[in-house]
Amino acid sequence: MLCNSVRELRARFRLTQQELADRVGVTRQTIGLIEKGDYAPSITLTLKISYVFGVPVEEIFRLKGER
Amino acid sequence: MLKQMYQSPLFNSFLILCFGLIMIGEHYPEHVPSWIIIDPMVLGIPILIIIGVIPFYNKRNPHDAVKASIIPMELREEDEGMQWITFKATRKVYIFYAFAIPIGITLTAYLNHITYFPIILFVVMGILQYIIYWTSMHKYK
User: Fold this and answer.
1) Nearest residue in A to B84, CA atom
2) Residues in chain B closer than 8 A to A41 (CB atoms)
C-alpha cells in the first residue's frame, strides 16, 4: 500500500485541499482520496504534488513498511 | 442543483421504475391491479419541465452547463482520481451484469407465465445497476 504525508505537508504549508487541488489541477475529492490512501496517484500527479511542496517524491510517498 | 439531480444515479433509477410501471400499465392493463396503472403524463410532464429548464440553467451557469452527450452524466471523469472512482464503480456494475444476465434469462424462461416479467427484470436490473454504482461512488466521497 502507498502511504503518504500529503495531509501533514498541506497543514505545514497552510493549504486547504481545494487550494492544493487547484495548484496541481485536480478536484478536491482527488486530494481527499490520496490523503486517505484510497487512491495511488499517477507519476505526473505525484511529481506535481512534490513540486508544490518543494520536497522529493520519496519524502511524500512511500510504500508501507518502508522507512 | 439541476446538474446534481441529473448526475444522481438515484434519480435515474427512479425514472426507470416509473417508466417500467407505465409500460406495464399501458401494455398489460388486464394483468395488473388498477392502482398500478399510471398515466404516462405523470412522468412525461415533469421530464418535459426538467428538459425545458436546461437552457435557462445553462444560461445562468455557463461554466457548469448541462450538455447533451451519450456519456451518462453520472460518470465522474473530471480528473484521474474521479476516473478511478468511476472505474471502481463501473467494474462492480459489470460484475453484477455478468451474473444478472444469465440469471435473468433463466428466470424469464421459468416465469414465462408472467407475460410482463421481462419488463420487471429490466427495471430491477436497471435499479440495481444504479444502486451498485451509487453505493460504490458514495464509499469514496
Assistant:
1) A39
2) 80-81
pLDDT tens figures, B76-123 = 888 999 999 999 999 999 999 999 999 999 999 999 999 999 999 999
CA distance A32 to chain B (A): 8
Domain A2-56 bears CATH identifier 1.10.260.40: yes
Specify the DSSP class assigned to residue B65: -
- Which residue type is seen at B88? K
Chain B residues whose beta carbon lies within 8 Å of the beta carbon of residue A45: 80
**Cβ contacts of B27 within 8 Å, gap of 6 or more:** B116
Q: How many CB atoms lie within 10 A of CB B139?
A: 11
Confirm whether pTM is higher than 0.90. no
Please give the grid coordinates belonging to residue B130: 444504479
CA distance B37 to B119: 14
